[in-house]
Amino acid sequence: MRQSRSFRFFSTLLVLLVASLVLASCQAAPSTTTTASTTTAAPDTFPVGVRNAAGETVTIASKPQAIIVTNVWAAEILLDLVDTSRIKGLSAWGDDPVLSETAGKAAAVAARVSTQEPEGIVTLKPDLVIIDSFSDVDGSLTKTLQAANIIVLQLASPTDFDQIKAAIATLAAACGETAKGQQLIDGVDAVLNDVQTKLQGLSEADKLKVMYYEDYYDPSGSSAGMLAAYGTGSPFDAIVRAAGLINVCNVQNYSAVSKEKVVGEWKPDLLIVPAITYGPDFKAVDDKGATIIGAIKADPLMQTLPAVQNERVIALEEKHRGSTSHYMVKAVAELAQLAYPDKMK
Known about the structure:
By secondary structure, the chain is an alpha/beta fold. The protein is built from 13 helices and 16 strands.
């Protein structure tokens, strides 16, 4: 989500669609409660009812044994929830280990599917298909699959940790793996609580200011020659708040901003940049942010930023920073460690 094509090439248009579906921003303090969907049966007994993105109850008659997941964040959760033998198809976007923590597990699933090719999904005869609401805005894909007697669970991309935990609980209930789901939720809370404990006593005045810097891509997928900033309602904002920093970007979610605004008004202490760039074949290359950091340091206007002057231009691990599954919490620990090394010992 980049200067020198370091923005995820193949997710550009999807990010813009997600922006229109963003919910409220995350809370500053980590929560140990979840907002799991209501079930209509005891845990791991079927039939079970779970809520989809529209708040409707989806009834699943028996424990799914042929699951298809068409988006990366839900696949990362499912691959840690169920045996790969129960997953019959995945999106190809989760195959790159630079971009997804679960690429290794995904390799054990043979088939790749696309929301643009519903016939390929139907051919695999799934008993449950999980899709992100951004990939089926008009509901046509869901209707096509339901017409083939396939159960569809449509969920919205999480943008904060409460939403991530709720998504885990929903998927765990749908797949009959509530105990494993609770383990994943507990893992998220453990990291958030550990960071919060270590940062106790950090005053508002002592919190560092931060923003995420990358190129802005317009709806056509072309660089608009402006910065992209992630403000309120974005996953990056959730990471920042949980890590005890202040996101100086006060625009909504993914927005284009001028360098002059960043330099003259926001003045971040830390500048977070993409860790990746893309090669001629559009394959992600993990250069630890070297490409974009070099460009920033060579820019006379950006050189005036406190973050640049103090050598605090940082690239987080992309597969964590760019994730909206339970792996996003790893970006919180990494950012807190980079921002407050003395407190995070």
